[in-house]
Amino acid sequence: MPEFVMPDLAPVMPEIVMTILALVTLIADIIFKRKETLAILSIASVVLVFFVLFGTPFKTTFNGMFIADGYSLFFKLIFLLNVVLTVLISMRYLVIERVNFGEYYSLILFATLGMMLMASAGDLIVLYLGLELMALSTYILAGFITYDMKSNEAAMKYFLLGAFASAFLLYGISMIYGLTGTTDLNAISEYIILNGLTANPVVMLSMILFAVAFSFKIAAVPFHMWAPDAYEGAPTSVTAFMSVGPKAAGFAVLGRVFLIAFGSVRMDWSAVLIPIAILTMGVGNIVALSQTNIKRMLAYSSIAHAGYALLGIIAGTGEGLASVMNYLLIYAFMNIGAFAVIIMLRTEGFKGDTITDYEGLAKSHPLAAALMLVFMFSLTGIPPTAGFMGKLYIFMSAVYAGYTWLVVVAVIFSAISAYFYLRIVMYMYMREPKESVSLAATPALGIALAITAAAVIIIGVLPSAVVSFARAAVAGF
Amino acid sequence: MLPKLFFGYYAVVIIVLSLLVVTRKNPVHSVMWMLLLFFHIAGLYLFLNAEFIAAIQIIVYAGAILVLFLFVVLLLNLREELLIERFIGTWPTALVISVSLLILVIRAIQDMALAPPGNHSVDAIQAETHTVALGKILYTDYLFPFEIASVVLLIAIIGALVLAKRKMRSPQ
Amino acid sequence: MVPLNWYLMLSTVVFMIGVFGFLTRKNIIIMFISVELMLNAVNISLVSFSHFLQDLRGHILVFFIITVAAAEAAIGLALIIALFRNKTTAHVDEMTEMKG
User: Fold this and answer.
1) Which of A163, A195, A155, A154 is nearest to A176 (CA)?
2) Is C16 domain-assigned?
3) Is residue A4 a part of any domain in this protein?
């Protein structure tokens, strides 16, 4: 009988601390009557995990099932940032929606734990369990307003299609397991190369199944059907959370599985991903043009942004991967910033989620309008905002990898997107206000807006720090 | 010959039951066929020397999950359910998609080349029983996923409470 | 000895029946049952791979899939109950609160 040797726990420390703190938050719900305490507790937890994360050695543990490296570190920073910003914009919003329950905060922490495990997964079993942990928590969060029909529907659709996608993922895992006899990503890659299986139809089948499953997770066309409904119906703070976190986690596993396990069949998977990327950019941007609900419009925008980010994966180089990571970080700031403004418009008895609600906002609330302007410029990709820099690096990496025509397509769609982003700016600045819109501004929301707006402008002007950090993170990949 | 006959019986019954599950109008019937299906799949697992998996297939799938399904199905208005069309309008398209996927996948798996065998041969598993063999590696090599699974189950408890409890609005 | 291929074909057929059910049925509960069917198809292929590879990893994965399926069922059915409270429908084509 093999003796059990305790694995090295140091690389898993951030996850262990995260689990403990999520459980503490869950229990604290019983003790504290004021749920704001839980929000502060969860932010404090994330800050603690942040410090633990930087003290974590870059090592592999649990027989290669868990990989702590620069790549996972960068993604974990995006996830932690996502939690901080989401919690800040949620505090007042939950009271307005009358769902101020403590489980919300622990579910956010558990979902983030799942994402962290996905980013570090070195084995398909851990990847699957991390993905399910994230997905199950997010389904609950999407249906958190249980008395609201829209929220129920959003969660139901998200759940059904998420479970459907998981089945495809598992089928892909089962095929690659049968072929290679292992579920370890590095071992799969070695086995495929050593045995010359790069042209084997089973490898192709498994790769396609993975591409389908991950496309569902990052909401890429034609597997995006759930996204508009789920984003529109879910509580706005949860929409902000799930348009950044699960998407980034999806890209983290997409990068690791495709560049490591399927690294030897890069030409084949880029042939699968290129049409997906073009369709994603096309459908996302074109359908967004006709939207009247701003959450739905941002859902299509989020689909389109997944398409841009896919270009970096298709490039298949370290530089491409670094630009994707950089882009996802920037996207976290600008998207949550935009959602923070939307949440600010939501007051008792006023939804504030149709585009016409923004008419004349510049006259009644110039600061809110100015912030929205910054985020819309950034989402369009207009310099000197961060969105421009993010796109620039992705497009450059794709050009260097020889996909100039693809970048031309992306730039065209990007130009189309200017129409619907700038329409909101036009409504805010050129129209007269119809009715007086009051804002539900709170200090927490103010902090979130300050962080996001500052980051969007600072990264836009001085992108080199973030970019070199992303490059360094990919170096050990 | 006998194993092939055995397999043939299971395969035919499993396919027929699967078809019944997805085509019955009455959801209660679907769930009942599903129950029978799960018992047959468990039989197939026994046939593949996976006793423990067969046992949890019955205990968890048939015993817990299906009962949960049945419980929820009974909330439905069955009378109304029996009157409406069961399929969406574009079902022929979906049929074409599924059949062509089926053909493609079956073509692909003809090239399945198995990896070299590991050290858990049928005899080795039988010597120490399947549950012991599985337990040994589950609590050593796969300790990490096992711990994650515990968190997944916790989420299920929280989720069921959050979504299905009566108190729906928090005070303002 | 039954060849591996037979098991794989059985698994594929069941998986595609699940896909068909998911894509065509109106009733949410049956759609969800179709997903369970797909998971069972995957389990069949994993258990047979494990048997032929003489490796227990497939069984471990099946063990986890069943665990997650149980968790998924609990959450999915809780969502359906939440949906029933507001509107007594279990049909996807009647879920039309959002359009566009």
Assistant:
1) A195
2) yes
3) no
CA–CA distances in Å: residue B3 to residues B10, C3, C8, C46: 11, 10, 16, 19
Residue A446 CA, chain-centre distance (Å), reads: 22
> CB within 8 A of C93, min separation 6: which ones?
B88, C26
pLDDT tens digits for C61-88?
999 999 999 999 999 999 988 888 777 6
CA distances from B165 to A19, A145, A348, C82 (A): 25, 12, 24, 9
> How many other C-beta atoms can be found within 10 angstroms of the C-beta atom of residue A35?
20
Chain C positions touching B53 (Cβ under 8 A) are 43, 47, 59, 62-63
Preferred mutation among A92, A205, A208, A268 to probe B, highest tally of B CBs within 10 A: A205
> Which two tokens mark B113?
């080349």
Give a yes or no: residue C99 inside a domain: no
Burial class, B97, CB count within 10 angstroms (exposed 0-12 / middle 13-18 / buried 19+):
middle
B104 touches chain C (CB under 8 A): no
For chain B, domain boundaries: 1-83
Domain of residue C53, residue span: 4-91
pTM, full prediction:
0.95
Boundaries of domain holding A150: 10-475
Contact indicator for C14, C37 with CB cutoff of 8 Å: yes
DSSP A409-438: HHHHHHHHHHHHHHHHHHHHHHSPPSSPPP
pLDDT in tens, A440-462: 888 999 999 999 999 999 999 99
Tell which A residues from 139 to 158 touch C, by Cβ distance under 8 Å.
139-140, 143, 146-150, 152-157
Question: Facing residues of A122 across strands?
Answer: none
Q: Could you give the number of structural domains in chain C? A: 1
Q: Which two tokens stand for residue A373?
A: 């302007």
pLDDT digits (tens, 9 = 90+) for B97-113: 999 999 999 999 888 88
Residue with tokens 């007269």: A432
Q: Would you list the DSSP string of A303-355?
A: HHHHHHHHHHHHH-SHHHHHHHHHHHHHHHHHHHHHHHHHHHH-BTTB---BG
Q: Which of C51, C73, C84 sits opposite B48 (nearest CB)?
A: C51
Counted domains in chain A: 1
C8 within domain boundaries: yes
What is the pLDDT tens value at each position of chain A, 477 positions in all?
556 788 889 999 999 999 999 999 999 998 988 888 999 999 999 999 999 999 899 999 998 899 999 999 999 999 999 999 999 999 999 998 888 888 999 999 999 999 999 999 999 999 999 999 999 999 999 999 988 889 999 999 999 999 999 999 999 999 999 999 999 999 999 999 999 888 899 999 999 999 999 999 999 988 999 999 999 999 999 999 999 999 999 999 999 999 999 999 999 999 999 999 999 999 999 999 999 999 999 999 999 999 999 999 999 888 999 999 999 999 999 999 999 999 998 888 788 788 888 888 888 889 999 999 999 999 999 988 999 999 999 999 999 999 999 999 999 999 999 999 999 999 999 888 877 777 888 899 999 999 999 999 999 999 888 889 999 888 877
In a domain, A3, yes or no: no
Given an 8 Å threshold on Cβ–Cβ distance, is C54 in contact with B119?
yes
Identify the CATH number of the domain in which residue C76 sits. Answer: 1.10.287.3510
Q: B20-40 burial by CB neighbour count: b if 16+ within 10 A, else e?
A: bbbbbbebeebbbbbbebbeb
Q: Which is nearest to A152 in space by CA: B84, B167, C76?
A: C76
Report if residue A1 sits inside a domain: no
C96 domain residue, yes or no: no
- Chains touching chain B through at least 3 C-beta pairs below 8 angstroms are A, C
Classify domain B1-83 at the CATH class level: mainly alpha
Residue B164 and residue C26: Cβ atoms within 8 Å?
no
Contact B105 C55 (CB under 8 A): no
User: Do the domain assignments include residue A233?
Assistant: yes
